[in-house]
Amino acid sequence: MPKQIDHEKRRKQIAEATWRVILERGMEGASARNIAKEAGLSLGALRHYFSTQDELLVFAMKLVQEKARARIEDIATKDLPPKEKMLHILLEIVPTNEETIREMEVWFAFTVYARHKKDMFDANHDGIYGGIRNLIAYLDEFDLLKQDADKDIEAERLYALIDGLALHAMLDPVRVNKDRITRVIMQHVESICAEETNETEGREY
Q1: N or C of the chain: less Cβ packing under 10 Å?
Q2: Rounded CA gap, 91 and 183, in Å?
Q3: What keywords are assigned to this protein (predicted)?
Q4: Looking at the domain covering 61-205, what would its CATH class be?
């Protein structure tokens, strides 16, 4: 058992080294040799943990997903008003600090690379769209959505908004900072929700 734990820990360290190489050199620089050097390993040692470069890249890509998913799941377990919980979850999808901006840069690099390798990893199935659909349904469960809201369309609109904010936050983090992102998301959520009534008072942000 200890050896298995050490093996998995080393695989994660190699994946994180892969992220650093991608951030510094781009996907074109993410060769096995460069990754091995960044991880402090020989090529032979690297191949002990990952038999192919694609296997390593898939693992590194999924690790980005796992980190974001863990943060979101932590928020989902908290006792928060529905719209406040939704806001916090969406703020984990849009990069708002150095760590999540780096993760997003790596994710975008992976996404472009994976476009022509769908047999390896389909970046379209990253779970974000499904998660956003669930958030819209979550609002509806609490009777917070406008009565005439089309849930499919609202999920698509929110997905497009979050995707755009994520890209802009990565490209221009000074302008598109956490405060601006928060205000944009809050305003959008309020625009799709029914006006506050006595029944919904106290369940807001």
Answers
A1: N
A2: 11
A3: DNA-binding, Repressor, Transcription, Transcription regulation
A4: mainly alpha
Parse the chain into domains and list their residue ranges. 1-51, 61-205
- Tell me how far CA of residue 149 lies from CA of 49, 78, 144, 162, 192, in angstroms: 50, 27, 10, 19, 7
- Measured between alpha carbons, how far is 102 from 75 in angstroms, rounded to an integer? 21
Fold classification of 1-51 (topology level):
Arc Repressor Mutant, subunit A (1.10.10)
Sign of CA dihedral 165, 171, 173, 176: negative
Amino acid type, 1: M
pLDDT tens-digit series, residues 72-118: 999 999 999 999 999 999 999 999 999 999 999 999 898 888 777 76
Query: Does the model's pTM come out above 0.70?
Result: yes
